[in-house]
Inverse folding.
């Protein structure tokens, strides 16, 4: 059976996501703003949850409905056969997005849907499922554009960027799927295939390095976590176990060395523990050192960093010298390497004195940000 599916993704990564899910069995793929719609069977849906490094969520469309007001929303959701997709013993949560819709408040719309689901179960079974907004068994997504609404089952549960290894973060953490996208835009998959190395001289909690290691090893990013579809009545455990075993067999040995450093010893300790949880403690060399003392771990590869840029961490005027020293490091010690910076401010990147060019425009924490690259 083929389902209508939708993968959500941070803005600016849609094209990469389209290319990523196509070999996973997706059909009739269409790129839209902040997502990709496609069709696929359960195996395709499971593969996307297991293998997508870029998507935030995988949604399986349950039904369409026309909504003119709160009463129409309640009735349409009361009439929907929820017992086919959950039981009264399961907890659930509702996520709502409204676009130019007749309803004004997403929280109130979520309450109406919740009431409809609870009332339907109580009227038919005498039992009622409970709401759990933090860790629900079943997560329902409702999207309403004007009067056209859609109900979807969130197969992911927790956002797919949560791989499971990052239980500690630095002051301004980068989401894992955004880090993976930046690595792809910067050319890391090709360089890894050429036995190149990777270095992050301002590594923070180590997200770039761990994602780079997972990419180089061909490790499925969802291998160490659970998913909401495992609580769905139509869950096929045998199929899922086969896909997990296939993913484990496809992982390559970690015969590469990646290097990360930071001037904060506590942050380096956090990065080291995150790498241990991800299974790459021996593949990543973490050290505590200042930028001027950083050394490349190999003759060629990718050096990528997400330096502070005056938002949440420091003021921009105080960072020009940091970017100048970063430029000196790249110029003097990383000749022959591909260099990349993730930064929203052209002026700070210009302070490096290097011929950077913009290869991607993305959004990080609501802030428009660019990826700059250059060949050293």
């Amino acid at each position: 059976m083929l389902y209508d599916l939708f993968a959500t993704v941070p803005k600016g990564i849609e094209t990469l996501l389209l290319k990523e899910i196509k070999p996973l069995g997706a059909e009739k793929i269409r790129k839209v703003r902040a997502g990709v719609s496609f069709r696929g069977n359960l195996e395709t849906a499971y593969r996307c949850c297991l293998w997508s490094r870029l998507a935030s969520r995988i949604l399986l469309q349950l039904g369409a409905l026309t909504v003119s007001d709160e009463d129409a929303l309640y009735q349409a959701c009361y009439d929907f056969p929820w017992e086919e997709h959950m039981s009264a013993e399961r907890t659930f949560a509702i996520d709502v997005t409204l676009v130019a819709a007749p309803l004004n408040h997403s929280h109130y719309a979520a309450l109406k849907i919740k009431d409809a689901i609870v009332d339907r179960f109580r009227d038919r079974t005498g039992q009622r499922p409970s709401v759990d907004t933090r860790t629900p068994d079943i997560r329902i997504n409702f999207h309403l554009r004007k009067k056209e609404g859609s109900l979807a089952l969130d197969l992911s549960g927790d956002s797919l960027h949560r791989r499971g290894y990052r239980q500690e973060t630095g002051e301004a953490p980068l989401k894992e799927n955004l880090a993976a996208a930046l690595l792809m835009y910067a050319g890391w998959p090709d360089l890894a295939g050429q036995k190149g190395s990777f270095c992050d001289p301002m590594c923070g909690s180590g997200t770039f390095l761990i994602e780079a290691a997972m990419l180089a090893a061909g490790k499925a990013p969802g291998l160490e976590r659970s998913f909401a579809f495992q609580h769905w009545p139509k869950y096929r455990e045998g199929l899922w176990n086969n896909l997990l075993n296939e993913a484990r067999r496809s992982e390559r040995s970690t015969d590469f060395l990646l290097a990360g450093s930071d001037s904060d010893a506590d942050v380096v300790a956090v990065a080291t523990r995150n790498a241990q949880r991800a299974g790459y403690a021996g593949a990543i060399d973490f050290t505590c050192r200042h930028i001027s003392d950083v050394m490349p771990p190999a003759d060629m590869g990718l050096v990528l960093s997400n330096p502070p840029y005056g938002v949440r961490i420091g003021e921009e005027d105080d960072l020009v010298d940091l970017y100048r020293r970063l430029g000196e490091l790249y110029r003097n010690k990383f000749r022959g390497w591909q260099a990349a910076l993730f930064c929203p401010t052209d002026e700070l990147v210009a302070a490096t004195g290097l011929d950077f060019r913009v290869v991607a425009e993305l959004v990080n924490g609501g802030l428009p940000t660019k990826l700059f690259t250059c060949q050293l």
About this structure: The longest strand covers residues 57-66. The chain has two domains: 3-154, 176-220+253-375. The radius of gyration is 23 Å. The mean pLDDT is 94.
